[in-house]
Write a structure and sequence with these properties.
By secondary structure, this protein is mainly alpha-helical. It is built from 19 helices and 13 strands. It folds into four domains: 134 residues, no CATH class; 88 residues, DNA polymerase, domain 1; 214 residues, Intergrase catalytic core (hpI Integrase, Chain A, Orthogonal Bundle); 57 residues.
């Protein structure tokens, strides 16, 4: 029974049962178009194996006929049985004929052994299969891959997929798929085209996570397109993703002194997000959870706050994915006073303009009355500015080089102003932002932002900081600090909304201070024992 169950599980892991036809996703016979697999060292067809798993073993002369509409289908209701004819004597054998059928640009090849009537029968069967496989929606036949992905993302949005996921898919497609094969017909995309996309990602040093995200997007789009009749094939069925060449730079969680520097710099240069960073450092909460906090989530009697929801990329609220994400987080007195001060500021703002405060305002609002939360993307952008002030930005070298070139042109570049109206650039600059942007084939807005980023980088030179300044880094700081202080791992996990196993695997990182303490401890043990031994001798 255990062997039968394992065989069934192995078979089901290669089957897609989401549509009318239950499609085999494993190896295929290139001549017949049917699935195949190894069973006890012998190769059998996927549809025969499906029949045997449902009805039991078959005799050698019994044949399972594939689905007439879809050779890869292993749905037992679509299969039929027949008896294998006895082998003809050698003198009566007929020759093998190779036939090719084309319908509306779609081709199919088969080798048929038999008389002329048998060849014509198979030819007609192939023609009928191709006719049925052509998408009924004539607009879909002209879709490019960009069109297919766009309709697939719209379908995901209708199905209630999180906006954050859709946003990431759009960004991945825009950066790594559309520039290579976005304009190609979706029905003409081949495995070689997919390989070109991932080869470009590998050359660019993209991580395995980024490559897996593109693979999930393309695989989902073609599965949906095939199920709905938009495309006929799935070019990722036998695709093997290349190994990423990305080597991450180790960035440890911030130390306590680093947190103090971060918050001091934040209140000086990015004061609008500084309270969020304070709460992130004291609670270890996620960014979406922080910006979704309302006044009703603050429990002054218990000196704590309740996490009930999280904000999506568009500011809409969503329920947490897991039960442990809903939790009570105790607060210290100073952090509690900071949050109460934020609520008082909202009240004062509304009073000064004669407006009414929202019934249950957000603690970190984007509107003066507290009716809407601050968008997570807004916080992330301000955090990137803070990274530049501290010199811990994680931009690519080519981006940093281009920004430095923009600042150099702004300071000492030259431009012919003959016949140009208007004054020279302010602040004694050699070139305006418009001129800098034109020189680098960018916009004036980009040039201004690049020059400001390069200037902040100059000011941060010499600090020599190296830590993970992100909300994930704040979470790792919180967990590492509490674990190093001797708090129970279950207490730390509950505070961050994780199980102890996830916390131990992903969020408890050895900081440099703990590493130094370990080195000192081992040194004392080893050298003390060595000196004691030499004293006895």
């Amino acid at each position: 029974m255990a062997d039968d169950r394992q065989a069934l599980e192995r078979f089901e892991s290669h089957v897609d049962r989401t549509g009318e036809h239950h499609l085999w996703l494993g190896s295929r016979n290139p001549q017949r178009g049917t699935g195949k697999l190894q069973v006890d060292g012998k190769q059998v067809t996927a549809h025969r194996r499906a029949w045997e798993l449902k009805h039991g073993p078959l005799a050698a002369n019994e044949v399972v006929n594939p689905c007439p509409d879809e050779p890869l289908c292993v749905r037992v209701e679509h299969l039929s049985m027949s008896a294998r004819a006895r082998r003809r004597p050698p003198q009566q054998r007929t020759r093998t004929t190779r036939i090719q059928v084309q319908v509306n640009g779609n081709r199919a090849h088969r080798r048929v052994r038999g008389a002329k009537e048998d060849v014509e029968f198979v030819r007609g069967l192939l023609r009928e299969q191709l006719r049925r496989a052509v998408p009924q929606d004539q607009d879909a036949t002209r879709w490019t891959l960009e069109d297919l992905i766009g309709h697939y993302l719209a379908y995901l949005e209708e199905q209630g997929r999180e906006q954050r996921t859709i946003y990431r898919y759009e960004s991945s497609a825009r950066n790594w798929v559309f520039p290579i094969i976005g304009t190609k017909s979706a029905r003409r995309v081949t495995p070689d085209d997919i390989d070109r996309c991932f080869a470009r990602m590998r050359r660019a040093g993209q991580s395995s996570g980024s490559m897996n995200q593109v693979k999930a997007l393309l695989s989902g789009a073609f599965k949906w397109g095939r199920r709905t009749g938009k495309v006929m094939h799935h070019p990722l069925l036998d695709f093997q993703m290349p190994k990423s060449s990305y080597v991450p730079r180790e960035r440890l969680p911030p130390e306590a002194d680093d947190i103090a520097l971060i918050l001091h710099t934040a209140f000086e240069h990015t004061p609008e997000v500084a309270p969020i960073l304070v709460l992130a450092a004291t609670t270890g909460a996620r960014l979406g959870e922080l910006v979704a906090l309302r006044r009703s989530d603050l429990d002054l009697a218990r000196s704590s706050l309740w996490v009930w929801a999280a904000a999506d990329v568009d500011g809409s609220l969503k329920d947490p994915k897991r039960a442990q994400h809903r939790r009570e987080v105790p607060l210290d007195g100073e952090t509690l006073g900071l949050l109460c001060g934020l609520l008082e500021e909202i009240e004062e703002r509304c009073t000064s303009v004669g407006a009414r405060t929202a019934e249950d305002p957000f603690l970190f609002p984007s509107e003066p009355d507290g009716s809407k939360p601050m968008l997570p993307d807004r916080v992330s952008k301000r955090l990137r500015v803070l990274k530049e002030y501290l010199g811990v930005e994680d931009k690519r070298p080519e981006t940093i080089s281009l920004e430095n070139e923009a600042l150099h042109l702004r300071r000492s570049g030259s431009v012919d102003r003959t016949g140009r109206r208007g004054p020279k650039p302010r602040d004694g600059a050699a070139m305006s932002y418009s001129d800098v942007g034109r020189s680098l084939n960018r916009t004036a807005e980009w040039a201004q932002q690049a020059c400001e980023a390069a200037l902040r980088r100059e000011q941060a030179t010499g600090l020599g900081l190296n830590f993970n300044l992100s909300f994930n880094g704040f979470r790792k700081f919180t967990s590492s600090e509490l674990l190093d202080a001797g708090f129970n791992i279950s207490v730390v996990a509950q505070r961050q909304g994780h199980s102890p196993e996830v916390l131990a695997k992903h969020y408890s990182k050895a900081r440099m201070s703990a590493r130094r303490e370990a080195a000192e401890h081992l040194g004392n043990v080893v050298h003390s024992a060595r000196h004691a031994n030499s004293g006895r001798s």
